[in-house]
Amino acid sequence: MGDSSRLCSVWLGSETGILKGVSLSRKQAFNFCNTSHLSRDQEVRALCWGDPAESELLVGSVDGTVKTFSTEKGSFTETRRCGDPSEGCFTGLAALDGSRIITCVESGTVRVWREDSSEPVTELDAGKNVCRMRQSSVHRNKVATGGKENGLKIWDLEEPKKPLFTAKNLRDDWLDLRRPQWVRDMAFIPDSDKVVTCTGYHQVHVFDPSTPQRRPVLEAEYGEYPLTTLSLPASGNTVVVGNTHGQIAMLDLRKGVVRGCLKGLAGGVRGLHCHPSQPVVASCGLDRFLRIHSLEDRKLQHKVYLKSRLNCILLSSRDLEEAGGAKGEGGTEEVKEEEDEVWDTMEQVEETSKRKNTEEGEEEEQQKKKGKKKRKKEQD
Amino acid sequence: MDITEVPLSQDKKGKKKKMKKPKKKKSAGQDMSGESTGVEKKEDEEVKMEKSEEAAAFPPTFSVSEIKNKQRRHLMFMKLKQEKRKQKMQLKKKKRKEREALGDKAPPKEVPKTIENQRVYDETTVDPEDEEVAFDEGTDEFSAYFNGLTNPKVLITTSDRPRGRTVRFCEQLATVIPNAHVYYRRGLALKRVIPQCIARNFTYLMVINEDRKVPNGLVLCHLPEGPTAHFKVSNVRLRKELKRRGKDPTEHNPEVILNNFTTRLGHSIGRLFAALFPQDPQFIGRQVATFHNQRDFIFFRFHRYIFKNEKKVGIQELGPRFTLKLRSLQKGTFDSKFGEYEWVLKRHEMDACRRKFQL
């Protein structure tokens, strides 16, 4: 179990309560749960890394518990109860530092928990119907919340009394009618104070708390269906959004225009995650597939059927195609062997893959690798 | 669990097309060189010459469609067709003779290629022993029905102001589905109808949409938690329009046959249909409702059967018959604006491959 969990580079939480790990280099998927007592109460609603080294996963279930999963051991090590299930499901989960975690539930209570005590250290009320809570990757005690008829709020967990920033609703429309608000997801843009949100009314907004303007500094629209989730790629200046019809698009954050759409999905998107360094985005949703698209040519790179509806997704920050983590001693040997295999097969297929990529000429090394792997699979 | 690689572009097709092009060019060039007055003659000569050489195949540089004279072209085309037909018949005869000569040792007949048996493998095909899928299905929205906790109760309604055919179609559907109630829509919004249905213990809401007096859409909403499926309806034939139909159906609970729902999506749709009918069929009624899926089209038929003797069974269609095609499957009760879709038919993206089926 430990060996397989070390290989996985993509982690997914499903509606049936199973934590799934996928190893793209091995083309294998693993279930991490005891299959004897599956239950819908265990449905995974939130997923995040427990520590910066990415050896621990925090899994938030519907029944109000947060479980710690160790990727080294490949098993759940700890279960703690964080709040009452009657308050609603988790909408956000984040690790503050070594022992503290932040949880947020639908009823709008954001709490900070310490490992040793069952009572929350800090508690703040973010209003009703919270759809999502996200943590800033730079200032780790800064969180943003938002929901239905509950605009974006940015909080500092040190001062839970008052939010740092509260967004104002959009101006009334040309009929002088109030515009409804429904923040579905948000993200902090690195290297600036800005926050990007997507709404249930297919808008994407950028807020800038550093300016006195409390309305969005950029408004964009995509499609005609509710946007469910977004993610920021490593390259910056763009945001990837997904909606309930399974359409994913890259939007430019400078002008608010669509840069390109990612195709191939059949059902609504529930989770999107861009790789922290590579130009790839992973998506999962109601169609039970994990799909990995390249952001450069917008092609589908991987497609994995995972049998249950998927709620959330998490990528590890190491190279996706790389064969497993080098941390474990047991894993490394196998990994090396497999790499050798890959290199061995490469020479044979040199010509064929070249012919295919003649037009592209000089491509990135990674791309080439990918092409070869495909060839290899065909040979198999 | 298996990972599928994205298929590489199909080179073969492209090449074939390329091969064809130069041929045409050549023939065009020849035409250009021929004098305008002598075109017909020249062509005639060409044809004769070729015929003497090889009776069947025309030379690659010649094509019938390039003959300018319509009558002549027609004549030539007929000849060409006859020639081809003759050849085909000869080949057939030859093969049959060979088979007869070989007798029992003859090789088994080849199975004709159809797009169904050439189907692209679908990785979501349900394995009956799979624990995870079994658990997923065992705890889904239909589990209450399959565990025998609820009895189906169906509300059938239409889009606003239905006309002749749609009204009759609804009435006939109500005779097929036991415990079905037909109501006029009275201009009510579906989102307001649904809570009332739930309060009255309906388990299904069925809405038939009509366009120009022809039923063309079906929304099937499972209550109280969904899912909602949207179908295109085509080829509706009411009882009156059927030939050799039996007497009107009785009120017995029919048996249900679900054919070819193999993928995960297909299973969900199959369960959706199965939950329309009561679980215990009354065999004394000898009635069967069939949902047959073929190439993603779902054919509905309603029959009465009879065992004539130990070997022979007779069936009699009772009607109505119609064809359904899935457009979307939405999680939750009907909410086309804010609902989350489990599956949406994306034309030109999903049906790009003719051998790939979704159900």
What would your notes on this structure say?
The complex is a heterodimer of chains A (380) and B (359). Chain A is mainly beta. Chain A has one domain: Methylamine Dehydrogenase, Chain H, CATH 2.130.10.10. In chain A, 13% of the residues lie in helices and 41% in strands. Chain A contains 4 helices and 28 strands. In chain A, the strands form 7 sheets. Chain A has a 4-stranded antiparallel beta sheet. Chain A has a 4-stranded antiparallel beta sheet with strand order 4-5-6-7, with no helix packed on it. In chain A, strands 8-9-10-11 form a 4-stranded antiparallel beta sheet, with no helix packed on it. The two termini of chain A are 27 Å apart. About 10% of the residues of chain A have low confidence. With 359 residues, chain B is of the alpha+beta class. Chain B has 2 domains: 66 residues, no CATH class; 214 residues, Rossmann fold (3-Layer(aba) Sandwich). In chain B, 33% of the residues lie in helices and 23% in strands. Chain B contains 8 helices and 12 strands. In chain B, strands 2, 3, 4, 5, 6, 7, 8, 9, 10, 11 and 12 form an 11-stranded mixed beta sheet that branches. Chain B is globular, with a radius of gyration of 29 Å. At the A-B interface, strand 3, strand 27 and helix 4 of A face strand 1, helix 4 and strand 12 of B.
